[in-house]
Design goal:
Layout: H1 4-26, H2 31-53, H3 60-84, H4 87-95, H5 99-104, H6 114-131, H7 147-171, H8 178-199, H9 212-235, H10 238-245, H11 248-259, H12 266-284
Helix pairs in contact: 1-2, 1-3, 1-9, 1-10, 1-11, 2-3, 2-8, 2-9, 3-4, 3-7, 3-8, 4-7, 4-11, 4-12, 6-12, 7-8, 8-9, 9-10, 10-12
Length: 285
């Protein structure tokens, strides 16, 4: 029996929950503070796991460092976008980072399939639909996706897409350990966020105070999702695992509809469905 399916599904659920609650915290704290301290908590949890395992760094660690360089900034952009815009819209747009591995594949001699090409079209169409202003006659009015929020969601998508490319390369390296690949990613993402704080946004990276517990749980959930995905990619069918992992915005959207009572226009709902469908096709292709 393969554990790829439950691990892949677990990664999607953990990512979706972490994104939602990270966005909620970013509505109360600066996004940089949420991203920095959640990543620190995730790194601490990883350090404990590595100490218990008692192994030295593996070759995949370097690929993990490359993966985390962009994902730290992407996480900050995502949390800020989730805080300023409708989560039901921002999360699916950010998930379109699945386009990046498909575009990079030809450089490795792996041209995208027809299914993947259809996924790109669906994802891009979905982004266009959700970015359109909703009709003024809708009651209650649906939230418009401001250009600033759209740019943050697309920036997060790019960072996450590159993360998947480098994590995949790291776990495919001979002798690599998924735990060390994710440890590399957490190390560089934390350094990037700390660098942003030191160079000009120190006031935005302050200690969360009484909110440190929910912020830390966000980071631990995000790190757990990354590790589950890396484990699933090495022990299961990558096509199936990719589809299950790509379902993470569904969890975010469901939580936003359920807990925040978010309402979208008909066109935005169609865009969300198209974007999620595109991500699924990309993962399957």
């Amino acid at each position: 029996m393969t554990f790829g399916v439950p691990l892949g599904l677990g990664s999607g659920l953990c990512w979706g929950a972490a994104d939602f609650f990270g966005g909620v915290q970013a509505r109360r704290l600066p996004a940089l503070s949420v991203a920095l301290w959640s990543q620190a908590a995730g790194a601490l949890a990883l350090a404990v796991a590595l100490a218990a395992q008692g192994t030295s760094p593996t070759p995949g660690f370097a690929w993990g460092l490359a993966a985390g360089a962009g994902s730290g900034l992407a996480l900050m952009l995502l949390y800020r976008g989730l805080a300023e815009g409708a989560m039901s819209v921002v999360a699916p747009v950010a998930s379109c980072g699945a386009v990046v591995p498909v575009l990079v594949a030809p450089l490795r001699g792996e041209p995208p399939s027809a299914v993947a090409g259809l996924g790109i079209v669906a994802a891009v169409t979905g982004v266009v639909l959700v970015s359109r202003s909703p009709g003024a006659r809708q009651h209650p009015p649906a939230p418009a996706l401001r250009p600033r929020v759209l740019a943050m969601a697309l920036g997060a998508a790019l960072g996450f897409g590159l993360f998947f490319v480098f994590v995949d390369a790291g776990t495919a390296t001979a002798g690599a350990s998924p735990l060390w690949v994710i440890a590399g990613a957490r190390t560089s993402s934390l350094l990037v966020l700390a660098g942003i704080a030191v160079t000009g946004q120190r006031s935005q990276a302050g200690w969360p105070g009484r909110r440190i517990v929910p912020v830390a749980l966000v980071g631990i959930a995000d790190t757990t999702a990354n590790l589950l995905f890396a484990l699933a990619a090495t022990g299961g069918n990558l096509a199936v695992v990719g589809v299950l992992g790509s379902l993470y915005p569904v969890a975010t959207v469901v939580l936003a509809r359920w807990l925040l009572r978010e309402r979208l226009s008909g066109g935005q709902n169609a865009g969300v469905v198209l974007a999620l469908t595109g991500v699924g096709l990309l993962a399957a292709g």
